[in-house]
Amino acid sequence: MTRSGLDRIAAAGGGTLGGRRIGLLANQASVAADLRHAADILAGLPVELAALFGPQHGWRGETQANMIEWEGFRHPRLGIPVYSLYGERREPDPAWLAGLDAVVVDLFDVGARPYTFLWTAVLMARACAAAGVDLVVLDRPNPIGGRLVEGPLLSPGHESFVGLSSLPMRHGMTMAELLAMIADREGTGGAIEAVPLENWTRGMSFADTGLPWVAPSPNMPTPETALVYPGAVLFEGTNLSEGRGTTKPFELVGAPWLDADRLARDLADRGLPGVFFRPAWFEPRWDKHAGELCGGVQIHVTDGDLFRPVRCAAETIAAAAAIAPDRFRWLEGPYEYEARRLSIDTIAGGPALREAIDAGGGLDALFDGWTADEAAFAADRAPWLGYGERA
């Protein structure tokens, strides 16, 4: 069984944290193998837990969608402040770090550049470096594995809260690996200490780890959701429902004006490996097309090693746009606080995907560019990979 950084620090009685005054950046999914929460574990160790910090969706994971802010509060049982890093501020106020020796980061990332938890941790790392506070990362598995990378690198000038440093859509790294790499890129200094995983290798699925799944955000209910998300997040930049308001967010995609059978046939004809597109009809209870019957598909991953979620989503959007060119639309911003450009360009990290779909025809030239980006990133990330390449 895999042991997370949290499990290891608990077993070590606090380890190097002993005697330090610390803050904790975490949320409801920051649990040990026995489902005890990180805050409860740290509060029982010989450390002084003085402050808590929470990312998007809240310390308790209660806010459903993007751009729903939450306010800090005082923890009712621990009696310490809980600071919101998703609201008026997305980086900590220096006053919140005053008097701390270290901030512990224990966030469950899902392996996709647009997932904001990584960028909350990056902003925390920058603030800690500026304040002379150590950063301790309790590492967790990448739930969709650590071998594959996919999708375009972030284009210069397209930095945002869903991409503050150039990564592909699927990066194949753990939180500790990413924070070390980005800190070295930025040259921000500061002490970053990682408590690494035990018994995890890059080819493992989440099921292989034996660890419990607690949804890291309300619309990430299962490991299967995480597997499609690095591509399916692109649906958020369109007027297609990405399945929010259903029990299968990101696995369902559709709209009231789409022909489900035709979409499934068109996608099957594109020959994408490791996936089956089943015609599906669904009625979101909230978000896009709430209360309307949508036709679309459910994305069924049949082989996780062959499946390429970003290419799958690009082909799905292209097929929907071709079926209903008079109804399909790209959404205006803002998207995660970025109002200067279309939402799809913010999510994809540049305009190339949108431009290729708008041009019609195939996406082979676009994907060729992605292949070059993927190879470049695979080489670039190599010095920071801390775990074996093979299961």
How do you describe this structure in short?
With 391 residues, the protein is of the alpha/beta class.
Which helices and strands appear, and what pairs or packs with what?
Blueprint: H1 5-11, E1 21-25, H2 38-43, E2 48-54, E3 73-74, E4 81-84, H3 94-97, E5 102-105, H4 117-131, E6 134-138, H5 175-186, E7 192-195, H6 206-209, H7 223-232, E8 252-255, H8 260-269, E9 275-282, E10 294-301, H9 309-323, H10 343-348, H11 352-359, H12 364-381
Parallel strand pairs: 1-2, 1-5, 2-4, 5-6, 6-7
Antiparallel strand pairs: 3-4, 8-10, 9-10
Helix pairs in contact: 4-5, 7-9, 8-9
Characterise this structure.
- This protein is of the alpha/beta class.
- Helix content is 29%, strand content 13%.
- It has helices spanning 5-11, 38-43, 94-97, 117-131, 175-186, 206-209, 223-232, 260-269, 309-323, 343-348, 352-359, 364-381, and strands at 21-25, 48-54, 73-74, 81-84, 102-105, 134-138, 192-195, 252-255, 275-282, 294-301.
- The strands form 2 sheets. A 7-stranded mixed β-sheet has the order 3-4-2-1-5-6-7, with helices on both faces.
- Helix 4 packs across helix 5 and helix 8 (260-269) crosses helix 9.
- The radius of gyration is 21 Å and the shape is globular.
- The two termini are 13 Å apart.
Q: What is the assembly state of the chains in this entry?
A: single chain
Fraction of helical residues: 25-40%
Shape descriptor reads: globular
User: Number of helical segments?
Assistant: 12
Largest sheet: 7 strands, mixed
Name the structural class: alpha/beta
Radius of gyration: 21 Å
Reading the helices and strands in chain order gives HEHEEEHEHEHEHHEHEEHHHH
- For the termini, the CA-CA separation is 13 Å
